[in-house]
Amino acid sequence: MSETTRKPVLFSGIQPSGQIQLGNYIGAIRNFTLLRHDYDCLFSIVDLHALTTRQDPAGLRRKTLELAALYIASGLDPEENIIYCQSHVPQHAELAWILNCFTYMGELSRMTQFKDKSARHKDNINAGLFTYPVLMAADILLYQTSLVPVGADQKQHLEITRDVAIRFNALYGDVFTVPEPYIPKATAKIMSLTEPARKMSKSDQEDSYIALTDTPDTVRRKFRRAVTDSDAEIRFDPENKPGVSNLLVILSVLGGERMDALCTRLSGQGYGVLKEETAQAVNAALAPIQERYQKLMADKGYLTAVLKNNAERAQMMALRTLRKVYKKIGLYQLP
Ligand code: ATP
Ligand code: LTN
Fold first, then answer.
1. Domain assignment present for 157
2. 119 shares its domain with 243
């Protein structure tokens, strides 16, 4: 591709930990598919980030391939987009070290994800969990990224990434593009089905999330059991009716119906109808993804070839930035 036709870069990543859930799809992957033609896109399987919580080695290997398959099954194209595994591009870890030296302990201490995860995993508050946002900043800055589509929970990490980039540029000239987050408000935070005050999360208990690989019956059962409230009125009010509002968001996005029209149509109906319609919309969205996913998972040779070839494409881009960084900060260059 020539310089003049190059599009701005979009980067995002998902950890190959747990099962990819509906919040990951609506908050992240679906937006990737909507934006993918307008940017030069990199979609990373961030396996180094996943190591911040304990992983079973065989499980991690399997989930890495599963996520590659899900990315493609969801509509990303490994010919046009770059779908690759973070650990296959060593420049991520290299840049992370450099950026560690430009990030303050105080900044990292304020990260809510660190506070949450260290409260939940008291037995494993490792240094990687603390410096997690620095590796994330490296992921993004390595590719001169302009846009980063993520869910609301990642907003703070995007802010620190921008701060580090601005700080570095102020010292060494315009080395990094300062990225913008892309967090559409309506879909930024899909809530847990069992505790609708918390975000849906793949590291939670199984009934709280819909896995993208759940069968139609499981999806229906999980929605039937989803926590709502006792006043039996279908109304969009996330503050006072988080459970019902969450179902409405899911149904509105996947059913392609505007929230106001949806609420008018369902007003006066019982929660059973809302749950059934939501389950149907989710199953309709997941069916084609699951079909492609099964085919892809049956061809591990293809997935491995994609990851290899795409990692090489990513490395070429990453090396360009890393060389510039090394030179600017004064690391001695060999001829
Ligand atoms: P974990 O529970 O392991 O932290 P997670 O389910 O939060 O995992 P991540 O890999 O951390 O998943 O997130 C991948 C992407 O999905 C990120 O952009 C994140 O913001 C987004 N995301 C995760 N959960 C939700 C959610 N409930 N609603 C909207 N977006 C979400
Ligand atoms: N921290 C993110 C995953 C992630 C990411 C990134 C997202 C790692 N590196 C770079 C966007 C850009 C999360 O969702 N837990």
1. yes
2. no
Q: Are residues 164 and 227 in the same domain?
A: no
Do residues 224 and 241 both lie within one domain? yes
Q: Which atom of ligand 1 is nearest to the CA of 17?
A: 3
pLDDT digit string, tens, across residues 185-230: 999 999 999 999 999 999 899 999 999 999 999 999 999 999 999 9
Burial annotation 138-172 (CB, 10 A radius, 16+ → b, else e):
bbbbbbbbbbbbbbbbbebbbebbbbbbeebeeeb
Of 10, 29, 49, 135, which is best to mutate to test ligand 2, by the most ligand atoms within 8 angstroms of its C-beta? Answer: 49
Ligand 2 pocket residue status of 12, Cβ below 6 Å: yes
Structural domain boundaries, residue 73? 9-182+299-329
- Whether the CA torsion 131, 54, 63, 226 is positive or negative: it is negative
Torsion sign, CA atoms 320, 183, 205, 292: negative
CA–CA dist 37, 34 (Å, integer): 8
What would the pLDDT profile of 262-304 be if each residue is shown by its tens digit?
A: 999 999 999 999 999 999 999 999 999 999 999 999 999 999 9
Residue 315 and residue 290 in one domain: no
Clarify whether residues 134 and 269 are in a common domain.
no
Tell me how far apart the alpha carbons of residues 212 and 269 are, in angstroms, rounded to a whole number: 28
Which pLDDT score, from 0 to 100, does residue 121 have? 86
Do 75 and 121 fall into the same domain? yes
Q: Is the CB of 23 under 6 A from ligand 1?
A: yes
Does ligand 2 come within 6 angstroms of the Cβ of 31? Answer: no
Asked if the model's pLDDT at residue 45 lies above 70, the reply is yes
Residues 99, 247 within the same domain: no
**Spatial distance between the Cα atoms of 285 and 292, rounded to a whole number of angstroms:** 12
Q: Return d(Cα 253, Cα 277) in angstroms, integer.
A: 12
- Report the catalytic residues: 117, 199, 202
CATH of the domain at 225: 1.10.240.10
Burial of 174 (0-12, 13-18, 19+ CB in 10 A): exposed
Q: Whose CA is nearest to atom 13 of ligand 2?
A: 14
Ligand 1: does its nearest atom lie under 6 Å from the Cβ of 201? yes
